[in-house]
């Protein structure tokens, strides 16, 4: 009897309607302020607009970031007359921010932008005329479409920012794996997809690691350091410090990234010092030391006054894409004892095995060339995220060790 009642009750139960998307709600309310002649056939008009509207978003308080292509030409063509965009767009953006803010519960959201890919070459930033060899080494997010809010002064990527520029810029933050990161979206990128690699680094030396070589207690690494040759806003710098290492030294060319790293370090409660090109390292003693300069002389810089403050360097990170190969031999030189090189590269999925063998062979060759008796082994290849069809952002973990020893 109880079963029959229960079944009957379930049969008569009506399913709850799917909650309306904040973007859909914003578009619906926005239509109410448009000229009546535009929305004479509301149902078909709304359906057409919603079919072309974005379905996803990411919140980096106080900014909402929409996926590439959102509210582009096709969407505004579906709206109708050209004057509507300039006259009524602000109301749409305000409504969208309010609705997403209520859904996310992350405070008042004030800025709205559309994401875009990071050009590999300056010619795609400044127009034709520059050779492809002029790479966008600063990873400037010049394609960012700013829809609503003041994102800070418009500065050329070549402009050296002042303290006033930093103060007037718009900064956002997010927390991943318990670590806060800060950046100015108009001037620097943020790679959300690196969250998996960050989590992997944080667990690198746990006692349950399948690789015995990695099972190191915090006491064992407490006086050791890491080096990040492409520090960015601190993606991996912060992970090495939270891992339990004593100090992290990083190199970064983009002053906006260095400032984001500095602000992020402070937000996490870590001491940080910024050193500019040709400045001495003798006085620095922060948990994080970031050098605003090219990393080509990194090895020599580390042999100087800072060297005795680093202990053993356990990790060297080479996080440049599409390939960091140009820094690998120097990274091996920097890693003067037992430890790991983390080599980032975009690799075709069918080529990973061959590339693994090539990397190991390169390391062995470089060690032999200098009479170094350590061994080199690619312990693991981590597939971080897809970069393009059948192309993966991979990290090759190369373990460098004295023969017959464990760290």
Automatic annotation (TrEMBL):
Gene Ontology CC annotations of this record: cytoplasm
Entry keyword Transferase: yes
Domain SAM-dependent methyltransferase TRM5/TYW2-type: residue ranges: 103-402
Catalytic activity, reaction form:
4-demethylwyosine(37) in tRNA(Phe) + S-adenosyl-L-methionine = 4-demethyl-7-[(3S)-3-amino-3-carboxypropyl]wyosine(37) in tRNA(Phe) + S-methyl-5'-thioadenosine + H(+)
* Family matches, as SUPFAM superfamilies: S-adenosyl-L-methionine-dependent methyltransferases (SSF53335)
Checking InterPro entries in the record gives: MeTrfase_TRM5/TYW2, SAM-dependent_MTases_sf, tRNA_wybutosine_synth_prot_2
Q: Which Gene3D superfamilies does this one have?
A: Vaccinia Virus protein VP39 (3.40.50.150)
Keywords, in A-Z order? Cytoplasm, S-adenosyl-L-methionine, Transferase, tRNA processing
Q: Where in the cell is it found?
A: Cytoplasm
According to UniProt, this protein's pathway is: tRNA modification; wybutosine-tRNA(Phe) biosynthesis
Any GO BP:
tRNA methylation
What GO molecular-function term can you cite, just one? tRNA methyltransferase activity
- Can you tell me which family this protein belongs to? Belongs to the class I-like SAM-binding methyltransferase superfamily. TRM5/TYW2 family.
Function text: S-adenosyl-L-methionine-dependent transferase that acts as a component of the wybutosine biosynthesis pathway. Wybutosine is a hyper modified guanosine with a tricyclic base found at the 3'-position adjacent to the anticodon of eukaryotic phenylalanine tRNA.
Record-given protein name: tRNA wybutosine-synthesizing protein 2
Organism of derivation: Hyaloscypha hepaticicola
Lineage, please? Eukaryota, Fungi, Dikarya, Ascomycota, Pezizomycotina
């Amino acid at each position: 009897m109880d079963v029959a009642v229960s079944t009957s009750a379930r049969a008569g139960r009506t399913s709850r309607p799917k909650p309306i998307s904040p973007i859909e709600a914003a578009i619906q309310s926005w239509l109410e302020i448009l000229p009546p002649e535009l929305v004479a056939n509301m149902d078909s008009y709304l359906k057409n607009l919603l079919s072309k509207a974005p379905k996803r978003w990411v919140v980096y308080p106080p900014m909402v970031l929409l996926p590439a292509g959102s509210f582009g030409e096709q969407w505004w063509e579906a709206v109708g007359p050209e004057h509507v965009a300039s006259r009524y767009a602000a109301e749409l953006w305000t409504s969208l921010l309010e609705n997403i803010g209520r859904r996310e519960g992350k405070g008042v959201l004030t800025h709205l932008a559309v994401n875009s890919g990071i050009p590999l070459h300056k010619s795609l930033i400044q127009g034709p005329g520059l050779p492809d060899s002029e790479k966008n080494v600063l990873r400037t997010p010049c394609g960012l479409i700013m829809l609503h809010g003041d994102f800070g002064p418009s500065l050329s990527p070549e402009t050296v920012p002042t303290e006033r520029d930093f103060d007037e810029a718009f900064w956002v933050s997010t927390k991943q794996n318990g670590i806060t990161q800060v950046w100015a979206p108009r001037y620097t990128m943020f790679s959300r997809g690196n969250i998996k690699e960050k989590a992997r680094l944080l667990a690198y030396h746990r006692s349950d690691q399948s690789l015995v070589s990695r099972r190191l207690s915090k006491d064992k690494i407490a006086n050791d350091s890491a080096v990040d040759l492409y520090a960015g806003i601190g993606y991996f710098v912060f992970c090495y410090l939270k891992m339990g290492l004593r100090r992290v030294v990083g190199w970064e060319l983009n002053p906006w990234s260095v400032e984001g790293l500095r602000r992020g370090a402070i937000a996490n409660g870590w001491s940080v010092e910024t050193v500019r090109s040709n400045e001495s390292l003798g006085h620095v003693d922060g948990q994080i030391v970031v050098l605003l300069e090219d990393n080509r002389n990194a090895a020599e810089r580390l042999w100087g006054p800072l060297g005795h403050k680093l202990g053993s360097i356990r990790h060297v990170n080479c996080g440049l894409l599409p390939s960091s190969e140009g820094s690998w031999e120097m990274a091996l030189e920097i890693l003067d004892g037992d430890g790991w090189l983390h080599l980032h590269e975009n690799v075709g999925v069918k080529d990973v095995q061959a590339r693994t063998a090539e990397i190991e062979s390169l390391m062995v060759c470089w060690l032999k060339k200098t009479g170094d008796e350590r061994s080199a082994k690619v312990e693991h290849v981590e597939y971080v995220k897809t970069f393009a069809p059948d192309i993966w952002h991979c990290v090759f973990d190369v373990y460098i060790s004295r023969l017959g020893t464990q760290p």
